[in-house]
């Protein structure tokens, strides 16, 4: 015993005896060892020998062969025997190195000391009991005291948690702040002066709540809504316009997918239908050009046109689809089960490869390194074009009987009778015959194990969905998956999307790991509210995202102000109880688009191929093909909304990159919000903001005249949606007059930026501009 | 360790280790949880993890190492395109004997679709240098003076024959795009020493960037604050650093003051908002960066001897020399990781000597040898040598065979190639490992690219198995899930 203690002291490297005793403590010393080396087979995921070691009461209980420890008697404990035996076949853990002498000493000390443990240790739930894997049931709406505050059931769920603590929700935000917030939230643009005036009129006489409801309805009907919300979806499905890697080639016509997403949001396409189209748009009975374009989602990943190992590359591509699908739609990290059963989630390699069997049917149309596109249309339309081309081929061979002029005339007629279809970028399934898929041991294509058929992760369903038999053109495996994904019975789909919408409105989801609803994800802050919303969404809401927006935005919970009170902040700094509104910096798209709107330059043209925004030469020089890599689009295109900016994986527009654009390669659940100096450099010194400041100043001159006071008032209203305070007004006018003098009388100054331009530059850089109240 | 095509999928004995963050989720966070984690970290029961900064907080705040570091800075001299080992640091007398014969070993020769020639001896003479007698070819007469400081690893190997995936692997540890770079991991794990400059700086070649461009300095799934920043060695060194034309310095400051004042008023009515306060500070930091970065590239104050030593007066060496000199100045200001690219664009504009490896390597070695030697000497003079790790090498090596019979080019060889380390914590004057008799394939003590990464992290005071970042349900590591090892032989005291 003394020798062991001495060894422990040595191990710590300093003579702090209390640490040695701490180490033999169950929670501090023993549990971390068991967790690291034993839980994966003797925990909640697996119970080899019916033994669980992930809670002390369970250790005391033992397994199917009886107890594994004898408290106070380590020599008589099976556990200790098994970790110390020299017989390799009997030794635990069976994989990896044996436990170290120090680790063994800790466990031994603990057993000899009576194997004590804290009485409040909870027993981890079995994964099958995990909340997110249970069917979505409709929880009762809780009753609350302050009925006046409630506008809809959301408020009851939020308020009941607050009242349980004796807390009150923050008061409603100022009407003009709410107007700006709702505009930025729904369309990513600030309210115009006319919109501000109209709202103020309608809000008179205590009618601001209903006036705001009307604004919401109005904004949801605008095309700019789709441009704002499609971008959130593009983050989740790893949208980019190029493939990455050496050539980083443009994905031809991939923008049709982006446009499809915008149109779908604007049309309020039910979310279940939206999923059906993206996963199985070619297998639907009413398949058409749009639904084929929708399936482009599976082709958005990066692609190496010169892979080092083509067979492995095939599985890398499948992995991209499986990881994206599971994270984006199901909130599961199934990608972790590619090489081994998931260490923390109830997901096995069999689950992974059963999913691979669904997508393994897809082929990438390509000609060597060149990607090919396919016509998008109804099946009959595509066959008509194919038949036409066949006829044209035959015609062109008839050079003996027809003159070339006659042939071309006929060809032209055929083209007129059956025009070309638009080309689109998606993977296709060339045959109803599905290739055989195996479990790959340790993810290696060379090590095939059991054959698998299409299936969804076992933990999520008691009964596997019925996969339809192969159809005339495809295996219909994706159709089977899509129907299961897009079903109200699926425990995850609705919860995940409802949470994503909530996250965009509140800055954080009810589940704060929006793409991880597994046992390792964070539990919901308001589990009943999440389930109520998910159930409502698939029933009354009929999968309509616009209805969901309307419900959330009409709640008083969403209309609260930012009002940090010290005691609440101390108890709940992350605002998990939703006692006020959290600050959220605008993402780069909304920030840039707002600047364009305020400067009067915004070009509202929709759709089409990505726009190559101007990039500083310094950023281009560092590229392999610096002379050809980036040709900026024409001037008029430069001021289009950010969702139309071309996203090149190897060369992200610096302003977007520095302002925390999402990862362009993987599915992204949430934008980072970092605050670093290069952002200030970009926003204060960069060409874009300075140009917009110039346009903004010209606009003010035109609309407000030469006098500082009306200029500043208009500037504040346009940019911040409010009047300047008297001190702001004084500050600004003082700057304007002083700076005018400087620019006029400083000799040798270059073509000077005017004082008004400087004021505009400052306004576009204000914290208030980037953080809506 | 055999080189297996699927080696990146063999999990090590303790993959997917649990992180502090996951633990916090489980215990519900709070002060008690944090205090416990502190204890567990100190007892070693729990890997210390640099945790992702909460929103709005500074992601570059300095963080403690896992153990005392040998080095504070890394300079990665990236010989883009792939220098030939048998012409640089791996002398092969047997190759001369077999000159003109076919290669009979089992390594796959070169990249897809290129012509395969015969074994080709090196035209460059190898000589022993320094007390150690380390053998270096005649391509590097200047660097050879520091032979006793160099630790050559002759048994490097990687997983790919292509430049794009090769550069990615050397920079991110992974052949697939979208992973954070070595410099990002260091910024994430250690924070910045001086926030008036970026922590991870990249300087590319005037002929262009490496293949894959920004993928080679991306922060991948980490916040953008950890990505590499392009630094120009002349003119305006950083993007958007200069005050816009038409705005005088006086107006710039006045406008910044106005912004500061208005933001301060805004903050005053919203007390305790750390994100807003941080954003106000970021503008002042940017302003200071303007001064600091401009000072770094202002080399007028360097004396004639220094400029001469770096080769600034000769056309051949002027560009790389300037970068090496700027590197010293960046290190003096506390920049953590500097990566210099020699070669950019394609084929002969880089070390990618497919057509004429002799002319190619004479050019690229000629451009870099003198500046690198000057940098070593200068670091020794300034004392930075004791805290700086130098890494030299490309994404792979080149075949001992010619590319096509009777030709002078060499194709890609990822089975075995040479790199060198020098400086803080490195045992110089030695060559580690070997290739087979003709120099094709790593033989003794093979070192995978990820072993090199583990070694660099180790010298910076970080344990590569404990430096993790939680993403996509996994604790990700620079060195991946395969078991990798610090190259112990390269370390002092080993």
Keyphrases for this structure?
heterodimer, A: 773 residues, mainly alpha, two-stranded antiparallel ribbon, 32 helices, 46% helix, 2% strand, B: 494 residues, alpha/beta, Alkaline Phosphatase, subunit A, 3 domains, 9-stranded mixed beta sheet, 11 helices, globular
Could you describe the 3D structure shown?
The complex is a heterodimer of chains A (773) and B (494). Chain A is an all-alpha fold and 773 residues long. Among the domains of chain A are: 2-121, no CATH class; 175-221; 275-376 and 428-478, no CATH class; 379-420, no CATH class; 588-673, no CATH class; 687-770, no CATH class. Chain A is 46% helix and 2% strand. Chain A has 32 helices and six strands. In chain A, the strands form three sheets. In chain A, strands 1-2 form a two-stranded antiparallel sheet. Chain A is globular and about 95 Å long. Residues 8-19 of chain A have low confidence and may be disordered. Chain B is an alpha/beta fold. Chain B folds into three domains: 14-43, no CATH class; 73-239 and 300-490, Alkaline Phosphatase, subunit A (3-Layer(aba) Sandwich); 249-289. Chain B has eleven helices and 15 strands. In chain B, the strands form four sheets. In chain B, strands 1, 4, 5, 6, 7, 8, 11, 12 and 13 form a nine-stranded mixed beta sheet that branches. In chain B, strands 2-3 form a two-stranded antiparallel sheet. In chain B, α6 packs antiparallel against α7 and α9 (315-332) packs parallel to α10 (357-382). Chain B is globular and about 80 Å long.
What's the structural blueprint in terms of helices and strands?
The complex is a heterodimer of chains A (773) and B (494).
Chain A: H1 2-12, H2 17-23, H3 26-37, H4 56-61, H5 78-84, H6 101-112, H7 153-165, H8 175-187, H9 193-202, H10 208-220, H11 223-236, H12 255-266, H13 271-280, H14 289-294, H15 310-330, H16 349-359, E1 366-367, E2 370-371, E3 374-375, H17 379-397, H18 404-417, E4 423-424, E5 437-440, E6 448-452, H19 477-485, H20 493-506, H21 527-538, H22 545-553, H23 566-571, H24 588-599, H25 617-620, H26 654-658, H27 677-685, H28 687-704, H29 708-720, H30 726-745, H31 755-765, H32 767-770
Antiparallel strand pairs in A: 1-2, 3-4, 5-6
Helix pairs in contact in A: 1-2, 1-6, 3-6, 8-10, 11-12, 13-19, 15-16, 17-18, 20-21, 20-22, 24-28, 27-28, 28-29, 28-31, 29-30, 29-31
Chain B: H1 20-27, H2 30-43, E1 73-79, H3 93-97, E2 126-129, E3 134-137, E4 151-157, H4 163-172, H5 182-190, E5 200-203, E6 229-230, H6 249-268, H7 274-297, H8 304-309, H9 315-332, E7 337-342, H10 357-382, E8 388-393, E9 397-398, E10 412-413, E11 417-423, E12 430-432, E13 447-448, H11 449-459, E14 468-471, E15 474-477
Parallel strand pairs in B: 1-7, 1-8, 4-12, 4-13, 5-6, 5-7
Antiparallel strand pairs in B: 2-3, 4-11, 8-11, 9-10, 14-15
Helix pairs in contact in B: 6-7, 9-10
């Amino acid at each position: 015993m003394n020798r062991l203690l001495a060894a422990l002291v040595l191990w710590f490297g300093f003579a702090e005896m209390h640490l040695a005793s701490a180490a033999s403590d169950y929670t501090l010393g023993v549990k971390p060892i068991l967790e690291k080396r034993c839980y994966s087979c003797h925990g909640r995921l697996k119970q080899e020998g019916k033994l669980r070691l992930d809670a002390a009461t369970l250790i005391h209980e033992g397994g199917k062969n009886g107890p594994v420890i004898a408290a106070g008697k380590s020599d008589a404990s099976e556990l200790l025997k098994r970790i110390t035996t020299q017989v390799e076949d009997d030794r635990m853990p069976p994989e990896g190195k044996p436990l170290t002498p120090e680790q063994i000493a800790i466990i031994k000390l603990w057993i000899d000391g009576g194997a004590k443990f804290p009485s409040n240790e909870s027993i981890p739930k079995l994964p099958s009991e995990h909340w997110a894997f249970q069917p979505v049931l409709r929880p009762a709406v809780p009753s609350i005291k302050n009925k006046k505050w409630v506008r809809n059931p959301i408020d009851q769920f939020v308020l009941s948690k607050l009242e349980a603590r004796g807390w009150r929700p923050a008061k409603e935000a100022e009407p003009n702040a709410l107007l700006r917030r709702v505009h930025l939230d729904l369309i990513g643009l600030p309210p115009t002066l006319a919109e501000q005036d109209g709202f103020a009129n309608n809000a008179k006489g205590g009618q601001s709540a209903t006036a705001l409801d009307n604004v919401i309805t109005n904004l949801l009907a605008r095309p700019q809504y789709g441009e704002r919300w499609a971008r959130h979806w593009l983050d989740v499905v790893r949208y980019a316009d190029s493939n990455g890697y050496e050539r980083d080639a443009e994905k031809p016509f991939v923008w049709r997918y982006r446009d499809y997403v915008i149109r779908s949001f604007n049309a309020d396409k039910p979310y279940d239908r939206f999923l059906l189209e993206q996963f199985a748009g070619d297998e639907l009975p009413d398949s058409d050009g749009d639904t084929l374009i929708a399936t482009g989602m599976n082709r958005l990943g990066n692609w190496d046109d010169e892979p080092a190992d083509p067979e492995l590359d095939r599985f890398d591509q499948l992995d991209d689809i499986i990881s994206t699908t599971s994270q984006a739609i199901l909130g599961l990290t199934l990608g972790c089960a590619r090489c081994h059963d998931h260490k923390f989630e109830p997901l096995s390699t069999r689950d992974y490869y059963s999913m691979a069997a669904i997508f393994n049917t897809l082929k990438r149309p390509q000609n060597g390194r060149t990607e090919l596109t396919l016509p998008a249309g109804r099946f009959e339309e595509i066959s008509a074009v194919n038949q036409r081309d066949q006829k044209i081929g035959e015609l062109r061979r008839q050079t003996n009987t027809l003159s070339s002029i006659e042939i071309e005339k006929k060809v032209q007629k055929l083209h007129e009778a059956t025009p070309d279809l638009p080309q689109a970028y998606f993977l296709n399934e060339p045959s109803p015959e599905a290739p055989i898929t195996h479990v790959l041991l340790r993810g290696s294509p060379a090590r095939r194990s059991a054959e698998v058929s299409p299936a969804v992760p076992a933990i999520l369903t008691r009964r596997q969905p019925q996969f339809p038999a192969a159809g005339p053109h495809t295996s219909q495996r994706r159709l089977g998956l899509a129907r299961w994904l897009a079903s109200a019975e699926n425990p995850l789909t609705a919860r995940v999307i409802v949470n994503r919408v909530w996250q965009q409105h509140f800055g954080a989801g009810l589940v704060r790991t929006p793409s991880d609803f597994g046992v390792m994800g964070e539990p919901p802050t308001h589990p009943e509210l999440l389930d109520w919303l998910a159930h409502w969404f698939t029933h009354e809401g009929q999968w309509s995202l616009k209805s969901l927006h309307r419900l959330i935005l009409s709640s008083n919970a969403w209309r609260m102000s930012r009002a940090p009170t010290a005691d609440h902040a101390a108890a709940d700094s992350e605002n998990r109880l939703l006692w006020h509104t959290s600050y959220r910096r605008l993402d780069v798209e909304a920030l840039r688009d707002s600047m364009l709107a305020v400067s009067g330059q915004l070009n509202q043209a929709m759709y089409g191929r990505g726009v190559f925004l101007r990039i500083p030469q310094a950023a281009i020089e560092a590229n392999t093909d610096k002379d050809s890599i980036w040709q900026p689009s024409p001037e008029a295109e430069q001021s289009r909304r950010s969702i139309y900016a071309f996203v090149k994986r190897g060369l992200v527009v610096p302003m977007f990159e520095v302002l925390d654009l999402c990862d362009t390669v993987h599915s992204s659940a949430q934008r980072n919000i970092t605050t670093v100096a290069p952002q200030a450099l970009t926003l204060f010194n960069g060409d874009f903001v300075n140009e917009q400041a110039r346009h903004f100043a010209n606009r003010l001159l035109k609309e407000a005249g030469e006098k500082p006071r009306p200029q500043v008032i208009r500037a504040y209203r346009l940019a911040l949606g409010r009047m300047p305070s008297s001190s702001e007004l004084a500050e600004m006018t003082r700057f304007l007059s002083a700076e005018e003098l400087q620019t006029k009388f400083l000799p040798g100054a270059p073509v000077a930026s005017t004082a008004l331009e400087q004021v505009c530059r400052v306004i576009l850089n204000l914290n208030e501009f980037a953080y809506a109240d | 360790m055999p080189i297996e095509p699927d080696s990146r999928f063999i999990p090590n004995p303790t993959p997917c280790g649990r992180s502090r963050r996951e633990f916090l989720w489980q215990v519900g966070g709070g002060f008690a949880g944090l205090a416990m984690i502190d204890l567990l970290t100190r007892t070693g029961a729990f890997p210390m993890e640099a945790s992702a900064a909460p929103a709005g907080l500074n992601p570059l705040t300095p963080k403690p190492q896992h153990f005392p570091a040998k080095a504070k800075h890394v300079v990665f001299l990236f010989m883009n395109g792939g220098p030939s080992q048998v012409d640089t640091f791996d002398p092969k007398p047997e190759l001369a004997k077999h000159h003109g014969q076919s290669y009979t070993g089992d390594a796959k020769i070169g990249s897809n679709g290129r012509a395969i020639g015969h074994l080709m001896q090196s035209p460059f003479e190898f000589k022993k240098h320094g007390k150690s007698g380390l053998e270096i070819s005649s391509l590097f007469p200047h660097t050879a003076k520091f032979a006793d400081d160099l630790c050559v690893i002759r048994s490097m190997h990687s997983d790919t024959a292509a430049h794009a995936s090769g550069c990615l692997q050397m920079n991110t540890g992974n052949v697939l795009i979208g992973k954070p770079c070595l410099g990002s991991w260091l910024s994430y794990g250690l924070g910045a020493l001086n926030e008036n400059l970026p922590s991870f700086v990249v300087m590319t070649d005037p002929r262009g960037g490496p293949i894959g461009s920004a993928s080679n300095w991306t922060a991948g799934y980490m916040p953008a604050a950890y990505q590499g920043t392009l630094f120009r060695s002349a003119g305006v060194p950083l993007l958007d650093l200069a005050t816009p034309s038409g705005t005088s310095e006086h107006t710039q400051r006045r406008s910044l003051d106005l912004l500061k004042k208005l933001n301060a008023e805004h903050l005053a009515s919203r007390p305790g908002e750390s994100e807003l306060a941080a954003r106000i500070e970021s503008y002042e930091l940017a302003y200071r960066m303007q001064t600091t970065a401009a000072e770094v590239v202002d080399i007028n104050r360097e004396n004639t001897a220094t400029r001469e030593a770096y080769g600034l007066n000769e056309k051949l060496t002027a560009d790389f020399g300037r970068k090496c000199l700027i590197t010293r100045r960046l290190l003096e200001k506390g920049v953590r990781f500097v990566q210099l690219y020699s070669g950019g664009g394609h084929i002969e504009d880089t070390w990618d000597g497919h057509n004429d490896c002799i002319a190619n390597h004479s050019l690229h070695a000629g451009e870099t040898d003198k500046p690198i030697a000057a940098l070593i000497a200068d670091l020794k003079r300034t004392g930075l040598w004791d805290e700086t790790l130098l890494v030299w090498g490309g994404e792979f090596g080149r075949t001992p065979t010619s590319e096509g019979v009777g030709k002078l080019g060499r194709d890609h060889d990822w089975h075995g190639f040479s790199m060198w380390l020098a400086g803080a914590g490195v045992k110089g004057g030695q060559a580690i490992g070997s290739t087979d008799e003709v120099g094709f394939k790593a033989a003794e003590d093979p070192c995978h690219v990820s072993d090199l990464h583990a070694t660099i992290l180790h010298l910076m005071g970080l344990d590569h198995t404990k430096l993790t970042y939680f993403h996509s349900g996994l604790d990700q590591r620079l060195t991946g899930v395969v078991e990798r090892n610090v190259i112990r032989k390269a370390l002092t005291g080993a």
